Task: structure prediction
Amino acid sequence: MLRINCPVCGTRDETEFTYGGDATVVRPAMDETRAQLWLDYVFNRDNPRGPHTEYWHHVQGCRQWLVMERNTLTHEVGECHLAKEAC
Amino acid sequence: MSQVNRLSGGLVDRETALDFSFDGKRYQGVAGDTLASALLANGVRLMGRSFKYHRPRGVLSAGSEEPNALVELRDGARREPNTRATCVELYDGLLANSQNRIGSLRFDAMAVNDLLSPFLAAGFYYKTFMWPRAFWEKVYEPIIRNAAGLGRLSKQEDPDSYDKGFLHCDLLIVGAGPAGLAAALTAGRSGKRVILADEDFRMGGRLNCETFALGDQSGADWAAATVAELTGMDNVRLLPRTTVLGAFDHGIYAAVERVSDHLTQPAANRVRQTLWRIYASRTLLTAGATERPVAFENNDRPGIMLAGAMRSYANRWAVTPGQKVAVFTNNDDGLRTAVDLAAKGVTIAAVIDSRKDATPLEGFNHLRGALVVNSRGRLGLREISVRLADGSLHKIACDALGVSGGWNPNVQLTCHQRGRPVWDDTLAAFVPGGSLPTGMSVAGAAMGDMTTTGALVSGARAAMEALELSGSAPDMPQAEDAPCSPTPLWFVSEGKGRAWVDLQNDVTVKDVKLSHQEGFVSVEHLKRYTTLGMATDQGKTSNVTALAVMAELTGKTIPETGTTIFRPPYTPVAIGAFAGRSSGKDFRPTRLTPSHKWAGEQGAEFVEVGAWLRAQWFPKAGESSWRQSVDREVLAVRKSVGVCDVTTLGKIDVQGADAATFLNRIYCNGFAKLAVGKVRYGLMLREDGMAMDDGTAARMAEDHFVVTTTTANAVGISRHMEFARQCLWPDLDVTLISTTEAWAQYAVAGPNARKLLQKIVDPEFDISNEAFPFMGCGEITVCGGLRARLFRISFSGELAFELAVPTQYGDALIRRLMAEGEEFDVVAYGTETLGVLRIEKGHAAGNELNGQTSALNLGMGRMVSKKKDSIGSILSEREGMTADRHRFVGFKAVNAGDAVVAGAHLMNKGSVENAANDQGWVSSAAYSPVLGSSIGIGFLVDGDTRLGEIMVAANPLEGSSVNVEVVSAHFVDPDGERLRG
Result:
């Protein structure tokens, strides 16, 4: 059970959120034709032991998508900001 | 029987006698007793049978670590198996029975297992029940389950309720012994918010069990005075009868409070137990220590118990476990047991001390350098054999033996995250180590401070540090400060008999040796092979001893051999407490449609669709099967008009200057050029190119769309669209909100749909075919000024509209529509008819959009626009997807009487029915009353070019195969004339 510091709502329980995966992947541009880049974007993810930058959706709160750093080993959470706001 | 073993003094209320029964026999105890202390007071030593060998067992401990004295408490629906007698607070009328026996507790037929023990050693199951494989489930498992296992469940519904609660504090203190009370006093006086939880019903821990003075008070009096002071503090919450069972992330702790377990049954409107989730800025673990036994041959007889527990019974409960008591110890703490019991007038037969150099205990038969090597007494201890320092063997008669092998700090909660205990040579025990759960610190005996003074001082100091308080800690009274000086002694091994390490799972020193011989050297393997420490007590009294045995066998030190860690829960927790109020129909919330009340009045059958309850069909008098109702509803819609509540479909309002651009990227087909006042069907793909969901988007204004999703995917699509908006294209000017609950929406379908609606749509709105054509939409008013939205869309293939009004008018609207529709013989139809209508029309739904199909499969390949960026369009063109030749078609039973079944697989006629010959599958099927035949839709290899072919729809699960003709999926009105009419 994590406690996530939503920049809109304050610190809330993990149960209000859903996990959204790696937040560092960037969707290729529409005219991108290299299949490998699309493959990487859609399917390939690292599974790091340690810091991980990831999406969380405050689905039972403000409905904002957040970007948060979480240590996958210790569950320590770091900075958390709105996904739509470039950090 | 009178209370033959009741002593003087103690913390019990002799004035309040309590009647109870055990195995049908009536006894009397007093207020303040536990079931264990009351049984001991009545001279009952035999309390249970062991798990595997059915050995007679008595109580080992006086606390939650108890492995032996497990009983079935209460009866009927409240019967509660595997309850530790040491934790049951005695109440008047308490009913308990021993368990895990066939016949009486004294003559358990299953005790034959004990004679067979040479064949039942570690790994017995793995070695014996291997062949034949067919016997695993049918023969072996029932036998094993019947023979092993402990108590029986009532198998009735739990009549009590449970609750969940949330608490916040600056400091959570786990355990109210001397360290916990000192910490609570320190923190409480500082004004911080404090929670002090203790599993016992009387706070004080060992202070209630020892005879030490604290200043000029007894330990128990000091504890009571401290609890009284804490009770008066508004910032302190005391939680007795509460076990903190787990340490979770970010300073969150779970605790179960046994609100009513000490009563016959909960008072009216009170719960049985509450599961607390505690958010603690800081936590102080002051959970004390657990004494460990020394293993020797036949060390499991009733009457043999921990020396510290014996002191607890004598000092707190005024009970002696026997009339003639011996003590076996490797440390000074064990000597206190002899002193305390003797002070209460109990005869001490001998004090057997493994230490040759121990200071002689004056006035006692103190046998230094001696070992207990065996015991006798079938149903209870009669005699022990003692090997003296000079090598001679002596037999000593006694009916109780207190054993002390030293104390293990209660490190359990420190392990629940990433903490790993470390070995302390001085204590010969593990102390907390590694990284502890967020915000946790440890004090008192749990940290290895084994004296009363040490506990008081370290508890107060730890509270100061945790809360960053300045100044000095409150003065603590003077108390004993003597180290217990253990000299490690784990097991005594002389003869061939069995010396028990884990009493609850019946694991012996020999089992540990066997496991080692067979190569299970890792501690984790040892646990799993022998099941050591894996019983409900989690090896609180056995894990460290087993490690020590293993260490001796491997010639390594204990820390080299491994460590022992613990996982939540600290003690067993009833499933009911975890469920709380989420049971039965309250397991999850139910969503009701706006027409629910009306539909109920009509006698509708309801079905769960996700969290929704939807009307499935509306039976009329004289209809004896659901098919009759559904056929009638279908025919009525196709002939005249029907109304269906479609509120459950997801509705998302999309607004903003870039709304059209946004939808253009969300749907694979184009939306940028959709005119205001028009609706378009849209297909959404996942980024991997597979079809995700479909629905409609209605353009209400240049910058305003109303999007619908399927009922099942409503939440997921909303989340997906929010992701696209916020994470992929945050620069677009668009906002989204789910309005599913805001609008009640009804489909009005059938040739007379317009005529019906014209009766309620306000006259200034023209809904003629010219003014409001197929796929039109608009904001209108109905019933004299009620704002509404009208969409001319059709799922049934008929002339149809969907009318939405604010939800609070949903009930009124269905009643009005049905009343106005009487002249057209209007019907209400449910989800079954909805399904038949859409299958007849060949519309895809959840069965077709199941995440495993593509636009190409669905016959919508050409819809995927190549001219724009939309989610999934690129990967929908990858080879693996374009190579899939399954196409969406319809199937009609060749013999009208045959049933086409959804899930049937399609085979060429004459081919063997197997996966290699699979040509596709039927995804949805129904009986079409219009066609008078069973029909289906589904996916067939090259289906679009095989119309007219006869195939076999194979259903090997039910052993039926029927011939079907491949047809267009559009069974009814293939040219779409009706819906445009």
